[in-house]
From TrEMBL:
<protein>
    <recommendedName>
        <fullName>VWFA domain-containing protein</fullName>
    </recommendedName>
</protein>
<feature type="domain" description="VWFA">
    <location>
        <begin position="86"/>
        <end position="281"/>
    </location>
</feature>
<dbReference type="Pfam" id="PF00092">
    <property type="entry name" value="VWA"/>
</dbReference>
<dbReference type="InterPro" id="IPR036465">
    <property type="entry name" value="vWFA_dom_sf"/>
</dbReference>
<dbReference type="InterPro" id="IPR002035">
    <property type="entry name" value="VWF_A"/>
</dbReference>
Amino acid sequence: MSSSGDVHGDHLPQTPNRVGQTGRAIETILLASTACLLAAVAWPIVFDGAPVPTYAGQVAAPAPAAPCQANAPQGSAPTASAPVIQIALLLDTSSSMDGLIDQARTQLWRVVNTLDGATYHGDQPRLEIALYEYGNDSLAGESGWIRRVQPFTSELNDVSEALFSLTTNGGSEHAGQVIGRSIDELEWRAGDGALRVVYIAGNEAFEQGPVRSEQAISRAKQQGVVVNTVFCGSPDEADAAGWREGATASGGRFVSIDPNHVVVHIDAPQDAELTQLGQEINATYIQYGAEGQHGLDNLVEQDNNMAGYGLGGVVERSVSKCSGMYRNDSWDLVDAIDANKLDISEVDRSGLPEPLRGLDDEQLRAHVAAKQALRDDLQQRIATLAKQREAHVAAERARRAQDPDSLDTAIIEAIREQAVAAGFTLDPS
């Protein structure tokens, strides 16, 4: 596995069937603090008064390393022109973390669906997710056994692809170093309406490696980024204390989880139709441009990846396809036109499917409008069924004994309170 660089769309092998191997815990973790909006400040060039070194080589233990890539933002952080929720996932991919990775893969769409009703002063925020892995001996030691797998993106199929690319091996887990890298390498948005959170998950001592966690967290606070810590083990273990202290120092949340917790899927009468509609909506996408064919192929591949984990994940992914946060305007012409990213007259016909290349502007505009209308209809049907399904599942959960490892209700209630305080609101349904 490469020690640097991002996932650029190589096709992934289809995941073997692992029905019943998923976990709800990562869902609750990601939702734990996403409404902790802090005031943003200018992007500083120094770390605690000292110049920021790069990670290319050995770093002296007392000097906090904080890398800057060639294309990393300099000066002030870009200001959010529209509301945005930014989530950076820092996942331990050492050899004991297979269960954690499975949870992240399968619960991604549940998180998206929960955040779909979020608004900031009436506007729906854009959701951007980034992914780092750390603690994997397959990565280069000079990088701290850390890799940025995916920079911030709103193309959620790319996030899913990145999660399914992860493997476990090793290793040495440098929590402070990976936090520092995420703060310095990612393009965090500043200003009102920008929600910035890090979730770091692991199961070893929090204080390892050349960067002290308190220094990395201090830099995060300067950027207005809240760091939430997820300890994969019992909260009574000795190592849990460091993770708890890290969250406290940041103003974030500490949560301990069982990474191998198994979610029991609750069947609902709407499941079959939601699954079918999730497939039908794929026919409304029109690939265009250099990324078009990969984008369409990746959409199908992520459907297949979720199918390998059972019905629960498939249903959640189907519901995500009616979400305003599920956007594919970099490769789907329907989304691109809807987002005013380009005009029909600007579309390079050579990047379109063969049957559309000979259409003039009016014909292509009519074709895109027809696909948009069909998508709107399918999304409305999905949304209606999803609400019915949620009511059924909620009633069934209330009837059953409470799962001791499930924090769904408590976390969602907390996030609603925090969202109101920060200016965000979530759909109460």
